[in-house]
Write a structure and sequence with these properties.
The protein has a 9-stranded mixed β-sheet with strand order 1-17-13-16-15-14-5-7-6, sandwiched between helices. The protein is built from 9 helices and 19 strands. It has a single domain, classed as FAD/NAD(P)-binding domain, CATH 3.50.50.60. It has 439 residues and is an alpha/beta fold. Helix 1 links the parallel strand 2 and strand 3. The chain starts with 6 loop residues before the first strand and ends with a helix. The longest helix has 24 residues. Bound molecules: flavin-adenine dinucleotide (FAD). Flavin-adenine dinucleotide binds next to helix 1, strand 13, strand 17 and helix 8.
Amino acid sequence: MQRSAIFHADFKSMPYWWEAYRPTAEDPLDLPRRVRVAIVGGGYAGLSTALELAKQGIDAVVLEAKELGFGASTRNGGGVSGGVNIGKSFSGRTIPVEPARVDALLSDGADAFSTIERLIAEENIACFWNRTGRFVGAWTPKHYRSQEARLAKLNEAAQSGAYMLPRERQREEIASDYYYGGMVVERSANLHPALYYKGLLDAVRRRDTPVCARAPVTRISPHDRGWSVATERGEIEADEVVIATNGYTGDVTPQLKRRLVPLASHIIATEELPEDLARSLIPKRRTLADTRRVLCYYRMSPDGRRMIFGGRARFTQVGPETSAPILHRFMTDRFPQLRDAKVTHAWTGNVAFTLDALPHMGRQDGMHYLMGCNGSGVAMMTYLGTQTARKIAGIANYHCSFDAPEFPDHPLYSGNPWFLPAIGGWYRLLDRVDRIASK
Ligand SMILES: Cc1cc2nc3c(=O)[nH]c(=O)nc-3n(C[C@H](O)[C@H](O)[C@H](O)COP(=O)(O)OP(=O)(O)OC[C@H]3O[C@@H](n4cnc5c(N)ncnc54)[C@H](O)[C@@H]3O)c2cc1C
């Protein structure tokens, strides 16, 4: 197939999810002059912080630089993991975590899943929440064995309902022989990310908390009564500031920017597939991912008719003319039966990796922050937002394990990830070598 032939005649360079909710800046609100809490960034993290603050009777404002939902929160794959990939860095390498922390991190990761599930039910958010589970395909037999070694811990500390599926039974999960078996994790789900975003936004607005679009924060200055937060649309006085900018963290908070590596992730959606074909690809409608360094993640659309296929086609932002053919190839490597499926949508967004590959909340120079989703932030950022708000309200009755005093940086890294293209190529090569060596 020629490169250009993969694009559908009605191709759009935007997230498929935006057909249902498109980030908006209509009717931008006037900024309040004074609030208890100013929240910078209007994704899941900012909105869930605002929602919990409102429930605790604390007034806040959410300041979003662009349209509401501009960031990763309406661009992701919508896979909701029931735990946390402890220390799994973007190189696929596992960064050691002190053994004493592992159980607490896994248990709080599991709590993140309960938090989002409860929130969606309580706020009545129609976002195609489906507790379908996940299948993580092993790229090599060695990966299968290391998944197996983690199984007991996942089930013990995070009640993941995980089990191994050998290669002979793999077709129960996927119409492909691409992997060497893999791990099923029953306690995970998928949703429509932009409708979940819209539901959170509606819930915050119902509590009369202003969510202001096109209000980029340009400077944050402390003074003896709190903070002055300058935006392009005026200045706000606040007692507390929360930074919820994740993969879009910029120069307003350089001390946080240098602790994050913003990596691009790309997704395509196919045209509607013939019904029988669509039904056969992922029979249990789970979310899928794999154990490669340069991983892919995929699922069917909520109506079951399209393949939504994501991965790190490149580690940096590139246009659909580059990313879509690569992802289409990754997709047909797994599903040769999709070779004629045309791409209707292609898009990209930033994922924030941390140097210890763990999500973080805490305080830096007096400001609260929550960030570093490491590619799994739908449940996690909702959870950290809720935890941050409870901490501010003084009602947190236990210490969240992601609230660690240490948020690592590196003396040679100041927030400019110039090295990503080279690293992306190197990891793709290592993946190939691993696979060839395993045969
Ligand atoms: C392509 C892709 C696929 C993904 N797939 C999955 C998945 O399947 N499952 C999963 O769990 N996670 C996934 N993720 C990760 C998940 O989407 C994120 O972890 C989550 O959305 C982060 O939410 P957030 O609110 O922290 O950040 P965001 O939603 O990115 O919001 C941050 C906001 O801050 C704003 N901002 C930045 N600077 C300023 C400023 N100075 N002033 C005001 N506002 C500012 C930005 O405009 C942005 O809107 C994926 C991410 C991407 C990009």
